[in-house]
Amino acid sequence: MAYRPLPALLLAGGILAGPLLPGCGIADATKDPRGHRVDAELLSELVPGVQTRADVRALLGSPSSTAVFGDETWYYIGGVTQNRIGRTEKLIEQEVVAIHFDRSGVMQRVEVIEKGNAQEIDPVARITPTPGNDVSFLGLIIGNIGRFTPGGAGRMPGQAPGSP
């Protein structure tokens, strides 16, 4: 039986490359906090019917988002992501704190929404049409054949060739 060095070289290469994998993001699974996470201790200090928007902003900071229509609900959105193979991230924890105010700006209630209670949405995959032609690069080149005349670089528009 003949000696084959290829499997031995592959094994040695794998052993040497092993310590380098964490630097590639393949082997390490780091967890990164994202957004504005609200501490439960701070939430316990909120008193519905007493505190105003200014009080909530002083205690929790500016919200991550507000209600689309009006300013009656503030959202503090935070989460934890984890790196996966190829540096893609997966959301492993998410918490949304919704603080509801009345029209006069007094806080009415606090709602904590966990990731399990979130509603999944499907983004619309439509493409907005734009005016004009959808021409490829090759179509642009072929479309310009015959549109230019030799020696026409120095002429003014409407000027005949050979005229001063």
Helicity, in percent?
10-25%
Mean pLDDT: 77
Order of helices and strands: HHEHHEEEEH
Radius of gyration over all CA atoms, rounded: 31 Å
- By secondary-structure content and strand pairing, the structural class works out as alpha+beta
Low-confidence stretches: none
Beginning-to-end CA distance, first to last residue: 89 Å
Q: Tell me what portion of residues adopts beta-strand conformation.
A: 15-25%
> Biggest sheet, in brief?
5 strands, antiparallel
> What is the number of E strands?
5
Q: What is the approximate shape?
A: flat
Blueprint of the fold:
Elements: H1 6-17, H2 21-24, E1 31-35, H3 40-44, H4 53-60, E2 65-66, E3 73-83, E4 89-101, E5 107-114, H5 137-143
Antiparallel strand pairs: 1-3, 2-3, 3-4, 4-5
Give the structure's gist in a few sentences.
By secondary structure, this protein is of the alpha+beta class. The protein has helices at residues 6-17, 21-24, 40-44, 53-60, 137-143, and strands at 31-35, 65-66, 73-83, 89-101, 107-114.
Write up what this structure looks like.
The chain has 164 residues and is of the alpha+beta class. It has a domain at 30-117. A hairpin with a 5-residue loop joins strand 4 (89-101) and strand 5 (107-114). The protein is flat. Strands 1, 2, 3, 4 and 5 form a five-stranded antiparallel beta sheet that branches. It has helices at 6-17, 21-24, 40-44, 53-60, 137-143; strands at residues 31-35, 65-66, 73-83, 89-101, 107-114. The longest helix has 12 residues, at 6-17. The protein has five helices and five strands, in the order ααβααββββα. The model has no long low-confidence stretch (mean pLDDT 77).
